[in-house]
Every structure is written in C-alpha cells, then in structure tokens.
Amino acid sequence: MQILRVFAALVGAAAAVHAVETKTWTVAEMADFERGNLTRLSLASDGRLTLAPALKELADPSVTFLWAVARDSKGDLFAGGGGLGGSKAKLIEIDASGKMKTLAELDALAVQSIAIDREDRVYAATAPDGKVYRVDSAGKVEPFFDPKAKYIWAMAVSKSGDLFVATGDEGKIFRVTPSGAGTVFFETEETHVRSLAIDANGNLIAGTDPSGLILRITPAGAGFVLYQAPKREITSVAVGQDGAIYAAGVGDKTPAPALPVAPVPIPSTPPGTAGAPTVTLTLGAHAPAPAPPPSLGGPAPAITGGSEIYRIQPDGYPRRIWSHSQDLVYALSFDSKGRLIAGAGNRGAIFRIDNDHSYTQLLKVPPTQVTAFAAAPDGRIFAVTGNIGKIFSIGPGMETSGVFESDIFDAGAFSYWGRLNAETAGEGSIEFETRSGNLNRAQKNWSEWAKLNGGRITSPPARFVEYRATLTRDAELDEVDVAYLMKNVAPQIEGMEITAANYKFPAPAAPSTSAGPSNPTLNLPPMGHNRPAPALSFGGEAGSTPALTYSKGQIGARWLAEDPNGDTMAFKIEIRGVNETVWKLLKDDLREHYYSWDSTAFPDGKYVLRITASDAPSNPPAEALTATLESDPFLIDNTAPEITGLTGTPAGSQIEVRFHAHDGLSVINKAEYSVNGGEWTLVDPVSRLSDSKDEDYRVMVNHSGETTVAVRVWDEYDNQAVAKTVVK
Predict the structure, then answer these.
(1) 566-577: average pLDDT
(2) Of 42, 34, 48, whose CA–CA distance to 326 is shortest?
(3) Separation between Cα atoms, residue 153 and residue 194, nearest integer Å
(4) CATH 2.60.120: which residues of the chain?
(5) Which top CATH class is 53-398?
(6) Which of 189, 443, 452, 475 is least surrounded by CB atoms within 10 angstroms?
(7) Domain 642-727 adopts which CATH fold?
C-alpha cells in the first residue's frame, strides 16, 4: 500500500501541468490523521483509525498535579499529588464502588510516590522535603522514614515486605524494614534515582539521571548497568511477564552536565485552565522548591529531543523500540495482553507499543501530562494526570463510537467536489459528512455539515473543505480520498517587454553555449526591474530569461504570465503597424515566455505586439480560456543613416573634414573616421551630444600628400553608413 501511494504521488506530480483535471486529496498516513481531531479514536502508526478503549473520568480532586497512583488488594485506588500557593499535599482514595475522598493531607507541597505493602498499608512519599509517611485506612498519618534526602522519586515493596526508596539529589536507594528502620541499600553515583521496579527474582531495576543508566541491583546489593541510554533521564521502568525490562528515557544529554541542572518549568496552562499556576524545579538545588518530575518540561529548552523507550531482553540485549520527537514519556505499564502502555506529555497522549516497528496512539486525555499508571486484574488501567490533576480509568471495553474531523483542505482555488472514497475494514459502520467554505478556518459562515449522496459530496463548491467520519462498533478507517476539480480561470499576462534590437533568444530547448567577445550576449534584468540601457555580457550567467545573442535585424519580446489553476499555457504572438488594423501572426502554440523574430521582413516604422495566452493544453476545447495583452508601440528600423556634405579642406598641414548625418527614424548614435585605412577614431558631433536624428561633425586630421578620409555613422538601431573623400 505504501509503495502504491508513493507511486501515485509521483504520477500526480508528473501530471501536475494538467491542473484543471480531477485531483485527489488523500488522508492515509499517521501524520495526515494527526492534523485532524480525533475523539474516542485510536490511531495506529500505519495510519489506521479504530475505536479507542473506553475512557472514563473517575475523579477530579481539585489539585494541580497528581504524580502517583497505586491499587490495593481490595480494589481501592490511591492517588497522590498537590497544588500550589501554600496548599498541602493530598492523598486521594477511591474505593471499589467509585466513591472518592481525601484520605489525608500532608505537610508538604505534593505526594510524589505511593507504595502499598502486602497488608494494604499505604506509604506516601512527599516533596520537596523527601519524607515517607504511612497512612492507615482511617486516614491517620504517621512519619515512617526520613532518608535525609532532598527528593524521593519512587518507591517499591519487595516480597519480603521491605520498602525501597529511590532518592535524589545524591542518587541513593534506601531499604526500609516494616518497622521503619532504613539503611542505604545502594549508591548509584548519579544525581537522581528517578524510577524503580522489582523483577520476579527480587532484583531492583532502577533508572537514573543525568547519565540515563538502567541498573539491575541484586537482593544482596550488587549493581550492574544493563544499559546507558542516549537520553539523560530514565523516567519510568517496568518489567514484563517474560522478564524483559522496559525503560523510558527523555532529554538530550550535554557533553559535560554541570550541577545544579538548569530549571525545568512545568508547561504553561492548557486551554480551559486559565489562571492555573506553573512550577519551576531545579534539580540538585538545596533551596526549597516544588518537586514535579524533572522531565515535566514543556516548550522550555531544558528538555529537548523528545523521548525513547528501550527494551532489555532477559539475556541483557538492549534495543530501542519506540521514539517520539516531541512527546515525553512519564509512565509505563502493561495492558491485559501484556502489551506495553506509555503515558506522555505534553499532549496528554497514551500510547500502546504493538511491536518493535509499530505503535498505536490509544487516546488523549484533556490534561497535558499522563504521569502514572496502575493496572487492575479486570483489564482496566488507571491513569493520573498533571496540569490538571485528574484520575481516569481506561478500558477494558471499547468506545461504542468515535469521530474523526479532518483538517481543512485548501484546494488552491474555487473547486467542485466529487466523490469521497474510503478504505475501511471491520463489521462496524462509518458515516461521512462534509462542509465547505471560502475562509481558511471553519466558522458559522461555512456550509452546514452534509451527508454524502451515493458517495458524492453535497457541500457547495468552494475553496476549502473538510470531512467528518463517525465510526461505530469495530469499524476501521485506513484511507480517505476526496476528489475535486478546480473551476477553470483564464490565464493572466502581467507584463510584456520588447527586447533590444539586433539580439535574439536561443531556439526553444537548444543547449546554452558560452559566447565570446566576437558574439556578445545580452542578459536581461528580471521583469519589472528595467535598466535604461541593457548591459552586454560575454558568456555570463543568464537572468530570468535566457541570454540573447547578437544577430543583426532580430528583435524579441518577453512576458510575465501565469495561470491561477496551474494550467499549461500556449502563447500566440501577433504584430501590426500602429496605423494598421489587421494583426499578422508571428508564432502560434508557443510554450516559452519569450520569442524573437526577423524584423527585416517588416518595413521600417512603429508596431504593436499582441500576446494571447491560452490554457487549451490543459482543458477541453470548449472550456479553454484566453487572455491578451498589447505592447506599447515600438520601432523597427533597419535603414542606414545618410551621410551628406562630406568635404575635406586643406588647412596648412591639416585637413578640415566636415559632414552631416541624418536618420529618418532614430537618433544618430555615433560616428568615426579613418585616415588612409588606419584605425577608426571616434568623433563627437559639433553639439557634443548624440541626441538627434541630424548631427553635424567637424574634425581636423593630418595631411601629407594625397589623403583618403573615410567616415561611418551608426543609428541607435545599429544601422551603419560609410562614405569617403580624397584630398590631394
């Protein structure tokens, strides 16, 4: 399918010269669909739309951020986060019936991490003071462990009941017994241990910042670096059913990262949360600061390069299986089929990694970051978000319907709409509607949404169009093609110039050659940038039209013309004298925007040129349109000037030579004389200015015996006359 699409695109490009033909707007790739709006739909990386897993908002606890979520054995859900402006950290509980309550408020800015042990005791780690509290079912809070660290990023409970606490800004992992006694279990030599998980053998899997290390630490405390990721920060780690380790990395590394790391701001408030504050976190700083994950950065330059997901096979082989240039992955989990799920920002996207080469954007949530997951045995996945903090359930069922609204397509000109064809699959149905308008954004002054009629678009002709597809049950949408036909518009001729006399354009399609001084070329300036006297060049680069070569008697014209439809144009050139009424054909069916002809076939005098542009090459004869433009009058002059009154009068050792030059149509350009066949010497007129059709000349030459004096005169059209006198 991809090869066919590429081939079709190439054919379309090759046929682009025939603009007023039926064309097709195709939406088939993931990038095409991403330009539209998806509601309750999933989008696969191969460009396939399907219904999304059912998304339900469980609770809005009125906090700015939620960083953590966990589920106990009874099915109760616990989420932790906080707000700004002096508000306290909150631990939220949603029981199995869906009822929400604030279980506890802690004396900190936010709950950063949550862990639940085998006895369903809840542990909440706060930020930025870095303490662990234990909270019972009645909401009683008791201090449990203080690692004396700035940050607590993650926690995990082992099978033996020990609580492991990942900290920063000294990169230590603590082991805390159920009694609350804690010791340093492992020192990473990194600034932060950002993520933590435990595999089936009791090994800790840890992700660090800023070196992007993924470590395996045995129950005895022996560490081994499984992979040093290209990204600087490992935001989440997870262990699959087969023992494979998955890790998400964000942020480009710098050659020599210095501490403290530059501040990383939380993204600006999303639409609909006007007035919501933002947070700036400085990693490694010792001044009190809010503690969102260091990767929660929006458009700020501190977090660049998007994110990547790596899989480390049970034998230790690492491989990058997913990447995104913009989205930052904050959380990893697995669905009921063991497929990896990734939560990201800053578009609130949730992805499913289908295999090493394809993935699906399952859905998007209104908040801008998906920060943590918790999976339930029934196939549901619980997600919490930041900016703003909400709790959602995803699946296990699918949405019953979903809507794709395409982006606005610009046909480039007023167009007629044809059929809408779609490649679909599945047992469900897809209903299409369209609307059109002549404004580049869909507003109330567009047409209303209208259903297709037998596959044909019923929206009125216009320049812009968009469609809406409603999918039900298990319908799949792979590709949409919209046929359209531009209304034919006449070509436009925007300007015309007559070129300098005695120069010609090269023959169409003839290879250009360099010309030497004996065969000069003339480069014309761009249209609309005339020079008083075009400069000659000898083999220089051509301008906007090909260079002209000297050819006595030739004259030419060039013109600016375009077709609003992009049609191929053919030109007809006609000429007539200013006092004539009938146009004479010079050239027909010309495709170039320039032409030269032999002016010696026309009597001297003033003429007018007419250019007719036709879009007939791209349209049926009955629908072809034309435009014409006439030039200003121009002169054809191929007659040499007259030399009269040539005399040579001895005056001592010199001769006084006098003569008169006259031209019937054009100004005398220059005169020269030669004595006894010697070099030609320029002579100025008596008036000193060559600005008239009549000029008188006087020059003194040396005289010794019989002397022959020759004179020659040119007019401005390069016509030449020669005469001589002999003085004894």
Answers:
(1) 94
(2) 34
(3) 5
(4) 19-51+401-486
(5) mainly beta
(6) 443
(7) Immunoglobulin-like (2.60.40)
- State whether the Cα torsion 441-447-452-453 is positive or negative: negative
The DSSP string of 44-64 is ETTS-EEEPEEEEEEEEEEEE
What is the overall mean pLDDT for the chain? 86
* Token code pair at residue 435: 């609307």
SS3 10: helix
CA 52 vs CA 35, 42, 45, 340: distances in Å = 18, 5, 14, 16
From CA 572, how far away is CA 562, in angstroms rounded?
Answer: 15
All CATH 2.130.10.10 domain ranges in the chain, comma separated: 53-398
d(CA 399, CA 479): 21
Q: What is the CATH number of domain 492-636?
A: 2.60.40.10
**At a CB cut-off of 8 Å and minimum separation 6, what does 466 contact?**
405, 406, 407, 408, 409, 434, 435, 436, 442
DSSP string, 11-36: HHHHTTT--SS-EEEEE-SHHHHHTS
- Of 144, 127, 143, 9, residue with least CA distance to 68: 127
Strand partners, 635: 606
Q: Which long-range CB contacts under 8 A does 21-25 form with residues at least 24 apart?
A: 21/485, 21/618, 22/418, 22/483, 22/484, 22/485, 23/411, 23/483, 23/484, 23/485, 23/486, 24/481, 24/482, 24/483, 24/484, 25/409, 25/411, 25/465, 25/481, 25/482, 25/484
Residue whose token pair is 């001769």: 655
Q: Which region, left, alpha or beta, applies to residue 157 given φ > 0 means left and ψ of -120 to 50 means alpha?
A: beta
Q: In this structure, are residues 713 and 641 in contact, taking their beta carbons and an 8 Å threshold?
A: yes
pLDDT digits (tens, 9 = 90+) for 114-129: 999 999 999 999 988 8
Q: Please say whether the dihedral angle defined by the alpha carbons of residues 360, 364, 365 and 370, taken in this order, is positive or negative.
A: positive
**4 membership: H or E segment, kind and range:** helix 2-14
- On whether the CB atoms of residues 330 and 370 are closer than 8 A, the answer is yes
Please say whether the beta carbons of 365 and 389 come within 8 A: no
| Rounded alpha-carbon distances, angstroms, from residue 105 to 96, 149, 289, 595 | 21, 21, 19, 86
Per-position b or e across 7-35, b if 16+ CB within 10 A of its CB:
eeeeeeeeeeeebbeebebbbbebebbee
Helix, strand, coil % in the chain, rounded to nearest 5: 5, 50, 45
CATH architecture group of domain 19-51+401-486: Sandwich (2.60)
Cβ(25)–Cβ(481) below 8 Å:
yes
Report which of 363, 402, 390, 98 is spatially closest to residue 272, judged by C-alpha positions: 390
pLDDT at 705: 84
Q: How many residues would you count in the chain?
A: 728
d(CA 468, CA 112): 41
Where exactly does CATH 2.60.40.10 map onto the chain?
492-636
Nearest partner of 148 among 124, 123, 165, judged by Cα: 165
Residue-wise pLDDT tens digits, 153-189:
999 999 999 999 999 989 999 999 999 999 999 999 9
At residue 167, φ and ψ (nearest 5 deg) are -130, 170
Task: Name the residue with higher pLDDT: 7 or 480.
Answer: 480
The amino acid at residue 380 is R
Rounded mean pLDDT, 613-621: 91
